[in-house]
């Protein structure tokens, strides 16, 4: 059985809905998730508003929201779960990624 590209927790879907409702721009279709070269471990996740579907981009429709997956990130995100967590000091999207082989000490970047 092939693992889904990306799944969302209820907390992540609720946060995406709130972000979409508060979007500063018109025409936002969902959020885009990707990976960029950054940090002490080499890669970090990014999340941004998506106003259009890019060429070769996968679209995940889960729990009533749309997540656009940057085509260059697919091999890094396959089988991941996107969550949203809040505590006293920070809040943000958190990825549980079975492809990660390590994370930096601060948790901002990862290695595959």
What would you call the shape?
globular
The helix/strand order is EHEEEEHEEEE
Average pLDDT metric: 86
How much helical structure, as a percent, in the residues? 10-25%
Low-confidence stretches: none
The secondary structure category is mainly beta
For the sheet with most strands, the description reads: 4 strands, mixed
Structural summary, described in words:
With about 110 residues, this protein is mainly beta. The chain is about 15% helix and about 40% strand. It is built from 2 helices and 9 strands, in the order E-H-E-E-E-E-H-E-E-E-E. The strands form 3 sheets. Strands 3-2-5-4 form a 4-stranded mixed beta sheet. It has a 3-stranded mixed beta sheet with strand order 1-6-7. It has a two-stranded antiparallel ribbon with strand order 8-9. Strand 4 (about 60) and strand 5 (about 65-70) form a beta hairpin. The two termini are about 20 Å apart.
Task: Give a brief description.
With 112 residues, the protein is mainly beta. The chain is built from 2 helices and 9 strands. It is globular, with a radius of gyration of 14 Å.
Can you tag this structure with a few keywords?
112 residues; mainly beta; four-stranded mixed sheet; three-stranded mixed sheet; 2 helices; 9 strands; 14% helix; 41% strand
Topology:
Layout: E1 6-8, H1 10-21, E2 30-37, E3 43-50, E4 58-62, E5 65-69, H2 74-77, E6 80-86, E7 91-96, E8 102-103, E9 110-111
Parallel strand pairs: 1-6, 2-5
Antiparallel strand pairs: 2-3, 4-5, 6-7, 8-9
């Amino acid at each position: 059985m092939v693992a889904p590209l990306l799944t969302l927790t209820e907390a992540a879907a609720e946060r995406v809905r709130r972000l979409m409702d508060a979007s500063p721009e018109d025409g936002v279709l969902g959020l885009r998730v990707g990976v960029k070269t950054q940090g002490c471990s080499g890669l970090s996740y990014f999340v941004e508003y998506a106003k259009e579907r890019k060429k070769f981009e996968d679209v995940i429709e889960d729990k009533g929201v749309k997540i656009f997956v940057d085509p260059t990130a697919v091999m890094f995100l396959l089988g991941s779960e996107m969550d949203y967590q809040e505590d006293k000091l920070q809040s943000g999207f958190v990825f549980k990624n079975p492809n990660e082989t390590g994370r930096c000490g601060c948790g901002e970047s990862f290695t595959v």
